[in-house]
Every structure is written in structure tokens, then in C-alpha cells.
Design goal:
808 residues, mainly beta, 22-stranded antiparallel beta barrel, 5-stranded mixed sheet
Length: 808
């Protein structure tokens, strides 16, 4: 057979089971006359957490594999008796004798940490190894485990995995203490945030101070800053892929924590065993299929204290009641092994922020917002080298504002609903190729503004409801090709489309990434990506707020488009303990969205007329030094970057910003330095610290004011005169956080006390700037010695916090 026909034929054989075509048995295809598949899970012996990337090998056959994101592995072996070895960095090697006679045999491995008393060994083991990062063709990606995030000092002691991502190079925050991510010059709405494959539209609590991800329910997160794999699409700047945690199978456990502003509780354990065929373990014992369940809840208690304070001051005329506020969220994840080849995972999330105020004069104000997210994923191993993953997910985000003054009510709300069905097929039939293809479709429903107002007796009533629909499609194929030990190439193509009424947009999105090894410890990497974004965030703020609404592309509002190229260098040194990486990137963006001055964004049936479209340019260089093992671990990152916009009527809207001149975005920070250190002082005590420095954020403030004299009898006023947008920079931002983690030794389970100090040297960082007009200057502008002064507002001083965490 000609060589150029072999690969297409192999791929056709791989997908034949999906098409109903007969396929030869696995043994016949692999050339193994007898034997079968050895499969199982590699876990941490103490925590029961899966170990990702553990090596399972049969040395005498020179065969091996690595565990996947769930700690699972598979090996196709001939019949016989073999020594199977499981290894992982920071863990003791475990060897078992396995007798493989039947088609499917199971062997699970529970590895003991080399430091049995220390959680840090788990941290080192479950995260990506430095050598793996060096050898991977994937660049511009950051992987973070929740175990790492738990050790770092946090605001109010509340561990937040999105805030920890802000400590990575190329990522800017949206303001003091907020969870907003601005990646390589992109805006916050250009991040694709996923929870087990389901889209999360607003991943923030408390107006952006905390994320919606409960640390007890999350195992880790992957942040893609560029070189996006072909399965991801729909956003321009980054992919934030959050993975929830599987439950343990041995028995039921409870864990949680009590902090300064919130408490958490998690229950996890095995589900009842399912009827049906049992596994055969390596020792010949029967093992029936079972499942696991995780239930995690979290709630703040601001409102408990404020209500007590309001009651204590009830009746005082000079007392202003404090508004009620709290947030709560609930996570659930159930996983079943339906058979040797089938696995079902169901994930759910429900979160709500509740804000309320009631004044003595009859004015009531209520504001609530939140996400409801769910997904069901079926993973089927059609054969050892072919896996089909089908996912059905739903996402709902809405906010609602309720006002009542005596007999008049006013309600304003917005919502977005998504329903997505996708299917992904992975083929690994050849050791030098990993082929992945998939298709996805998402139905969108955008309620961009619903207004209801009137009197309680119904004599006055009016309202408005603006709703749009759209359907987004994606089809992709990608191949990771190991050309030689030195060269790995990942290439793919994503075809995306969006339909809204009679308008259809479609375009190809090519993806390319390669790695070339200069030696055993040095590699060069290159990537190029095109992305399109079909939905747009309608906001008048630099950071996402609960009242922001999403708006679909249509005949007037066309999709945003971006291209990004990146070149990287990686070097492993210090006997493999240190990894240095340096990446340079350039990003072009077209049809980025902004709004006319004075735009009306709420309940506007002609919202299209408020949009302006422009171009964006972002480029920079990122330096990163990392260590993951030893008594001292952590990283140092530095980014030199530019992020600019230009609205010069190039897309025919008849209006410009800054008369068409280029200006920096609000998240343009020329210099950004982060340093994170975790020091193991003893078996029970960890010292942690993080330091952040960034250049001042661009903003717009009045350069001067002129005196306005109205008609006779009217007051004199000062009218501000504004220069170009973002022509002024706030003061530089820097902050030091410190923490101590004390491991305790309870009789049952485990626990720790975490003391964190946010902003340890009490730096008053700028949050915003305003002008203070002295009393009496209006209407007397000639008041001697008085001047209008700019004043800075700071948000957080030094904040200590103590958190108690437990597990039993």
C-alpha cells in the first residue's frame, strides 16, 4: 500500500465504529493474539486525589503510559504475568505483579508520598512537572492546582484561584483586590471561562472581589494565554479552564473552613454500587462499578452582623441603616463508572449574590445576580486508542434590580441562557500522532433589558422587554505530531459560525504550535492563532460588573477578530529543579467594541447605534523563573507590555475616540513584576509570601476647568475639560502579602490554621482619583488660598485574617 494512503486509512478505521461499520477486534488490530487491556487509577495514598501524569510501565516489555487528568491509565498487553511499575515525582515507586489473562484487568495504584506527614509533597506531585512543560509543544499556558493556591496569603483569608492566576506573567488585574483577568492586552469579556466544559458568564462575587469558584470544589485550572488548542473558541484573549474535583471512593469525608468573612463545608464519598458486570482486578477479585459524589457549599455572613447592628440602632433619627449583603454558592459533582469503557460525570453549580436596603422613609432597594451552570459528560472508550467524549451543558446568568418607593415599583433585569451540545473524538492509534476532532453547537438567548414599572394598585403600569437569539457552531480537527525526538508539531483548524436571524457569519481559525529541542534541557517554541468572538459585553466600566449585559453579533455589530503570534525559549537547569521561560508575543485585534460618549446602555432597543468599533494592538515580553520541589518553591515573573486601542472610523460608524488617535487601555501596565515564595520551615509550618508591582493604570481625569456663569440668579459652576482618553496614569501599584500555615495533628483527620496578612506594609494603592472642591469656592471662585485638588481613594489597608481548615 502506498505510504501516503496509510494514515487516512488508519483514521478511517478509527472512526468506523461511530459510522456503524464493522471493525476487527482490538487484538487483531494491535497484533496481540491473546491478552487484553490493563487499566486503573493512580492516586495519592493519603488524600485519594488522582495523580496527573504518573508513569505506569512494564519494563520487560518496554511499554508504558501516563495517567490522564482523572488519574486513569490504560495499557494493551499480551497475556502473561508481568511486573507493573507506577512512579511519580515526590512519591515512592510502587511495583505490582499482574496476571493478565482476560480481556480487561484492573490494577489501581496508591502511591505514598516521600514525606508522609507533609501536604507539600501532594502539591509537588499533582501539578505539572517542569520537565513536562519543557517538552510540551503547548506554550503560553499556566497550570495551577488548588493545593498551590491554598498555601498563598489571600484577601480576608479567602482562597481564590482566579486571583492566584493574576500572579502569573502576562496577566493583569482589573483593580485593587478584584478577580478580573486582563490577559495580554485583552479585556475581561475576552476570556472564555469554563467549569467542566460549561461556560460561566460572570465568574465573580462581591462586585468582583472574589470569584465564584469554591476552593473545596476545585482541583485546578489551566490558563491559555495564546497558542489555543483547536477545541477552544469564542473569545479573543484567553481560556480559563476550571476543573472540579472528583470525590473519594473509600468512605465518606467532611471538610471545610471557617474564615473572616465566610465558612465552607464539603461532603464527599462513594455512591451506591451499580448493578452489572464487575471489573477483574490484578489479583483476580471482582470489583463492581461504583461512583463518587462531592457536595460543597459556601456562604458569607456580612448580613448577620449588619442586621444585628441595624436592630441595635433602630429608632435613632441620626442613624443610616447598613445595607444587607451576602453571597452563597453550591457545587455538586457525581461520577459513575458505568462499565469498563463508560464513565458519566454530572456537574452543577448555583451561586447568588444578594444585596438589599430598606430605609425608614419607605424606599426599598434589592439587587441580586448569579450563575446557574450544569454539565453532563459521557466518556466512552470505544477501544484503547479511540475515545469519544460527549457533553451537554447549560449556562444561565441573570441580574435583577428591584426598587420600591411607597406605592411605586421599578424592576430592571437582564439575562443570558446557553444550551451547548458538543462531541470530541480522540485517536491515539500511533505513538507519534494524537488526533482530536470535534463538533459543537450552542443556542444563545440574550435578554439585554427587561423593564417593569408601575404602582402597586395597577393604575399605572408599563414595561419593555428586549430579547435576542443566536446560534454558534464550531467544527475542529487537530493533530499533535511527534516528527522526531527534537521536533513536535501541533496543527489544527477550527471552523466557527454564528447565525442571528437572517445574518450568518462564518470563518476559519487556523492554529499552529511547534517545539524544537536544542538539547536535553533547552527548547524553542512557536505558535500562531486566530480567534473570533461573536458575543460582546455591554459595559461602561473597565471591569465586569453585575449590571453588564451580553449582546450578540448581527447585521450591524460584526464579530471581533484577533491574531496572535508568540515565540518562546525554555531552559531547565539546576539538575532539573529550575525552569526559565521567556516568551514574546504580538496580538492584532479588529472590531473591538467601545461606546459613544454618553451612550444609553440600559433598556435601549437601538443599542446598535451606541457601539463604536476599532482596532487593538498588544505586544510584550514575559520572563518566568519557576521551582516546584525542595524546601523553597515558587516563581518570579516579569512582563514588559503595551496594550493600545484606535477608533478612527475605519469601520464606518461616523464617530471616533480621541479624534482617531491611538490611546492606551485602562489595563495597559508597562511593567509588571510578581514574586511568590513558599518555604517549608518544618514538617508542620510553611511560610508564604507574594509581592506584586505594576506600573500605574491609565485613566482619564480633567486637565482643567473653566468658570461657567449662567443666567442672572443662577449659581456659578466649574465645568471640567477632559484631555485625550487615558492620558493620565495613576501611581504605581505594589503590595506585599505574608502568610503562615500551621499543620495541626488532630486525633482524627487533619486540620490547619492559616494566618494571612494582606498588604503587609500598608501601602495605600490608588483605586480611583476624584476632585475635591472646597466649600465656599462655589459660588465664590476668588476665595483666597482655596484650590480644586485631586485626591486619591484607596480601598484596602493592611488586613490580617485567620482561617481554620479541617478534614475528617
Amino acid at each position: 500500500m502506498p505510504a501516503d494512503l496509510r494514515r487516512p486509512l488508519r483514521l478511517l478505521l478509527a472512526i468506523a465504529p461511530l459510522l456503524g461499520a464493522p471493525v476487527a477486534p482490538v487484538a487483531a488490530q494491535t497484533g496481540t493474539p491473546t491478552g487484553g487491556t490493563l487499566r486503573g487509577i493512580v492516586r495519592d495514598a493519603r488524600t485519594r486525589e488522582p495523580l496527573i501524569g504518573a508513569t505506569v510501565a512494564v519494563p520487560e516489555l518496554n511499554r508504558g503510559t501516563a495517567s490522564d487528568a482523572d488519574g486513569r491509565y490504560e495499557l494493551t498487553l499480551p497475556a502473561g504475568r508481568f511486573e507493573v511499575r507506577a512512579t511519580f515525582l515526590g512519591y515512592q515507586t510502587l511495583t505490582r505483579t499482574v496476571s493478565l489473562q482476560s480481556a480487561d484487568t484492573r490494577a489501581d495504584f496508591s502511591l505514598e508520598s516521600t514525606e508522609k506527614q507533609l501536604d507539600e509533597a501532594v502539591v509537588e506531585g499533582t501539578q505539572e512537572k517542569l520537565s513536562d512543560k519543557l517538552k510540551s509543544q503547548q506554550m503560553s499556558v499556566e497550570r495551577l492546582t488548588i493545593a498551590e493556591a491554598r498555601l498563598l496569603p489571600a484577601l480576608f483569608g479567602e482562597v481564590d484561584i482566579l486571583k492566584t492566576l493574576q500572579l502569573k506573567p502576562g496577566v493583569q488585574n482589573g483593580g485593587e483586590g478584584t478577580t478580573g483577568l486582563f490577559v495580554r492586552g485583552g479585556s475581561n469579556d475576552q476570556n472564555l471561562v469554563l467549569l467542566d466544559g460549561a461556560l460561566v458568564y460572570n465568574p465573580q462575587h462581591l462586585f468582583g472581589l472574589f470569584s465564584v469558584f469554591n476552593p473545596d470544589a476545585v482541583s485546578g485550572v489551566d490558563l491559555y494565554k495564546g497558542g489555543f488548542p483547536a477545541q477552544f473558541g469564542g473569545r479573543l484573549s484567553s481560556v480559563v479552564d476550571v476543573k472540579s474535583r472528583d470525590g473519594v471512593e473509600d468512605k465518606w469525608h467532611a471538610s471545610g473552613g471557617v474564615g473572616l468573612i465566610s465558612s465552607r463545608l464539603t461532603l464527599e464519598g462513594p455512591l451506591p454500587r451499580l448493578p452489572g458486570r464487575a471489573d477483574t482486578t490484578a489479583t483476580g477479585d471482582a470489583r463492581r462499578k461504583t461512583g463518587t459524589l462531592v457536595l460543597a457549599g459556601r456562604r458569607t455572613y456580612f448580613d448577620i452582623f449588619t442586621r444585628q447592628l441595624n436592630r441595635a440602632n433602630e429608632g435613632r433619627e441620626d442613624y443610616d441603616p447598613i445595607p444587607d449583603y451576602y453571597f452563597q454558592d453550591f457545587n455538586a459533582k457525581a461520577t459513575w463508572d458505568l462499565s469498563d469503557s463508560d464513565r458519566l460525570t454530572v456537574t452543577g453549580y448555583l451561586g447568588r449574590d444578594i444585596f438589599g436596603f430598606q430605609s425608614p422613609n419607605g424606599f426599598d432597594f434589592g439587587f441580586q445576580w448569579g450563575n446557574t451552570v450544569g454539565s453532563a459528560r459521557w466518556t466512552r472508550r470505544i477501544r484503547p486508542d479511540l475515545t469519544l467524549i460527549s457533553t451537554l451543558s447549560s449556562s444561565n446568568y441573570r441580574y435583577e434590580i428591584e426598587n420600591k418607593f411607597q406605592t411605586f415599583t421599578f424592576n430592571l433585569s437582564s439575562r443570558v441562557n446557553d444550551l451547548t451540545l458538543r462531541s470530541d473524538l480522540l485517536w491515539t492509534g500511533r505513538p507519534d500522532h494524537a488526533v482530536q476532532v470535534g463538533v459543537a453547537a450552542t443556542g444563545h438567548r440574550f435578554g439585554v433589558g427587561r423593564l417593569q414599572a408601575g404602582t402597586t394598585d395597577g393604575t399605572v403600569s408599563f414595561g419593555n422587554d428586549i430579547t435576542y437569539y443566536g446560534t454558534e457552531y464550531g467544527l475542529y480537527a487537530q493533530d499533535d505530531w511527534t516528527i522526531s525526538p527534537r521536533v513536535v508539531l501541533s496543527y489544527g483548524l477550527r471552523a466557527s459560525a454564528f447565525a442571528n436571524g437572517g445574518q450568518v457569519y462564518a470563518a476559519p481559525e487556523p492554529r499552529l504550535a511547534t517545539r524544537y529541542s536544542l538539547g536535553e534541557n533547552t527548547s524553542l517554541k512557536l505558535s500562531y492563532t486566530q480567534m473570533r468572538q461573536y458575543v460582546h459585553l455591554v459595559t461602561n466600566s473597565g471591569a465586569s460588573l453585575p449590571t453588564d449585559v451580553w449582546y450578540p453579533s448581527n447585521k450591524t455589530v460584526k464579530p471581533q477578530f484577533a491574531q496572535q503570534g508568540a515565540l518562546g525559549f525554555s531552559h531547565l537547569f539546576g539538575h532539573g529543579h529550575w525552569l526559565f521561560t521567556q516568551e514574546m508575543y504580538y496580538k492584532w485585534m479588529n472590531r473591538v467594541v467601545d461606546f459613544r460618549d454618553g451612550a444609553q446602555l440600559f433598556v435601549n432597543p437601538n443599542l446598535d447605534e451606541e457601539f463604536l468599533f476599532g482596532r487593538g494592538y498588544a505586544y510584550g515580553s514575559e520572563f518566568y523563573l519557576e521551582r516546584k520541589d525542595g524546601r523553597l518553591t515558587g516563581w518570579v515573573g516579569y512582563t514588559l507590555a503595551w496594550a493600545n486601542r484606535r477608533f478612527d472610523n475605519a469601520f464606518g460608524r461616523g464617530a471616533t475616540i480621541n479624534d482617531g488617535r491611538t490611546f492606551p487601555t485602562t489595563y495597559d501596565r508597562r511593567h509588571n513584576l510578581t514574586a511568590v515564595a513558599i518555604f517549608k520551615l518544618s514538617r508542620r509550618i510553611h511560610l508564604t509570601s507574594s509581592f506584586v508591582f505594576s506600573s500605574g493604570s491609565p485613566t482619564t481625569i480633567a486637565a482643567k476647568r473653566f468658570l461657567y456663569l449662567g443666567p442672572p440668579g443662577n449659581d456659578i459652576d466649574f465645568v471640567p475639560v477632559f484631555p485625550d482618553r487615558n492620558s493620565y496614569r495613576l501611581a504605581d501599584y505594589h503590595r506585599l502579602d505574608l502568610g503562615v500555615v500551621l499543620k495541626m495533628r488532630p486525633r482524627h483527620g487533619e486540620s490547619d490554621l492559616t494566618l494571612s496578612i494582606y498588604n503587609a506594609y500598608n501601602r495605600r494603592n490608588p483605586y480611583f482619583v476624584y476632585y475635591d472642591i472646597p466649600e465656599g469656592l462655589i459660588p465664590n471662585p476668588n476665595l483666597s488660598g482655596e484650590r480644586i485638588k485631586a485626591k486619591q481613594v484607596s480601598l484596602f489597608p493592611i488586613i490580617p485574617a485567620l482561617t481554620y481548615n479541617f478534614r475528617f
